[in-house]
Every structure is written in structure tokens, then in C-alpha cells.
Please model this.
Amino acid sequence: MTDRINIAMLGYGMIGRLHSLNYRAIPFLYPDVIRTPTLHTVVTSREETAQTARTEAGYLNATTDHSAVFDNPEIDVVDVSLPNGMHRPMVERALAAGKHVYCEKPLAGTIEDARAIARTVESSGTNARFGMVFQYRFIPAIIRAHQLIAEGRLGRVFTYRAEYLHSGYQNPERPLSWRMKKEEGGSGALGDLGSHVIDLVRYLIGEFSSLQGHLETFISERPVAKGASEKGEVTVDDVAWIRARMADGSIGTIEVSRFATGTLDDLRIWIYGEKGAIKFDLMDPSFLYFFDESKSGGDYGGDRGWERIETVSYYPGARTPPARAPIGWSRSHGENQFRFLQAVSEGRDPSPNIVDGLRTQLVIDAVEHSAHDGGLWTDVELE
Model:
């Protein structure tokens, strides 16, 4: 064993760049906790982008040949930051080569591919570990919300509401990309944004039991390239709505959209229980809001009202930034990556893992089936 964890990056789009930044930052966040993450090899589809990635991020090697990763015994971890439809073949090859895998959400483009990946993980004869990217679990406010619910501070949960809203796709001249093609992305807003919300609901409340789904595509054709007159078909959803019954009997609604004009990165969740309630807003990420039903009203309201809990950057054991600092978007990604590498270093399964990836995909699949059947209530499978 060396003093490094050698990482190979498959794909160097926005997410690949962000992951690369965070791998380099981990020794500053948690010095001497794990072996030093080392950017060993980056793989992109074109030679010029591979070399740009090598220079920009400081990778030791750059290539367009995936085999250079799977056949190299020096590489410990493969980070799969590729279009959803490419996850299965890359994950299967990495696991077959005995590499640990860190996979971007959603797990795959289709439920068939997701189940195949799960079977590969379960049947792998190596000690390779598999981790998922669900970074919003690692915002301190969300971790504190999980604690409050686990401690029974909300009591029985009755209802919840969650939404993840983006804008930018409402422009009909925005050209086609892999995110708008079912054969490459699998689904649209549902998989892109919905996977995050579905995982958060599972993390905070528990498993989905049944649901109704509705999907809408507002712009069905787009230019095949920027400025092109030729149009291509959009084959995924622009917006998704979910009404769900959970295993604990609570009921919730979810909306995800890439057409919410005026929004930025608006992820919000409200959970209402018999003893209390919580709410969180990603645009106000340093705080969790908690309502304690046991506090008396009294004259002029007494102590009754929403409490603003300052979760900011409280990560036990982290050296930088200081806990009092406002949390930034990339920090939760960095924590997700650190927790994965820590689990790999300690020889245990990471969390979130293959179960979380598959069960999120099963919810996505149930939504698609329900929407296809006109919004019929559809049971959600667990395997």
C-alpha cells in the first residue's frame, strides 16, 4: 500500500471538474485522516479536452482510452462522471478490474442498467467498494434534520413537500444535449433533479410505498447544435410531479423542474409531524428551521415559533474552513467524496451506496410507469 489513493476520472464536464477540485482539497479539509487523494488519470472523449483537463486539474496522465484506467494496477478509484447511459459499462469494467467506484447520480439511465449494476456490485468477488453521489445528504443542516427526526422530535410524520427548481431550459433555442435524449440521459428533470430529492426524502423519512407521477415536455424539438436550423426531438421530461405515500404512512408531494423561470438552485423541503416540523432551503444553506410544538404560546406568542438553527459548516474533525463559515455548494460534494474515500480506506461499505442508488432508480421507474398510465397509483419496488 502506498501513501496515495490514485483516482481516475471518467469525464471532465462541470461535475468532473468539481470532483477534481474537491479531491485536491480533501487533505486541507481533513489532514492526515486518509491517504492522499491523487489525480492519476483523466479520460475524455477527445485528446484536446483530455490534455486541457490534465493541465488544469494537475492529473498525472490524460487519455481517451478507458482501458488505460481499467488495465492499470496503480489506480485505486474510478470516478464515473459520465452521461447516465454510460454508467453501466464503465462501472462493470471498473469492478471487474477490482477498482473502487464512485458513481454520479442517478445510478443509470434505465432500471435494467441499474439492476445490472447492482447485481455486479453484489456478485463482485473483489473487495471493491461502490459509492453514490448524493451530496445534499452532507449539508450540515440536512444532517441535523436527520438527527432531529431520528430522535423523535417531529413525532409521527404526517406530510412533506419537496421541490427542486432550475431555469434555463425554457429558451427554445437552447440546443439538444445528452440531458435531453432518453437514450443517453434516461430521463430529464426527473433523473437530473428528482434523484436528489428522492434520495433526500428517503434519507429523512424512509422508503416510498406507492406513488402517482406526471411528466411534461414543454418544448418537443430543439436545434441539434447552437445556431443550427435543423431540429431534433426532445425525448425526456422537462418537469415532473410526484404524489407519494411512504412506508410510514405519511404523504408527500415532489416537484422538479428545469423550466422554473427566475430560480437558481432552489431545493427546498418541508416536513410536518405531530410534535414538530422542519424546513430547509438550499439558497439559505447555513441554517435549518425547526418548529417545536411543545413550546407554549402564552401572551404575545410566548416562545412559540420557528427556531433558526445555525448549522453553517459544522463538520466534526474538519480543519478548514472554520465551523462558523457559511457553507458553499461545493463543500457538500467534498464531504460526500471524503466519506467515500474514508470508507474505502477503512474497508467498509460507504453511504450512500448501491442500495441507495438502486432504490432511487426504482422510484424514478415507478414515476415513469405511473405517468405512462395516466397517473395511476403505482407500487414502488425495493429491489
Q: What stands out?
A: DSSP finds eleven helices and 17 strands in the chain.
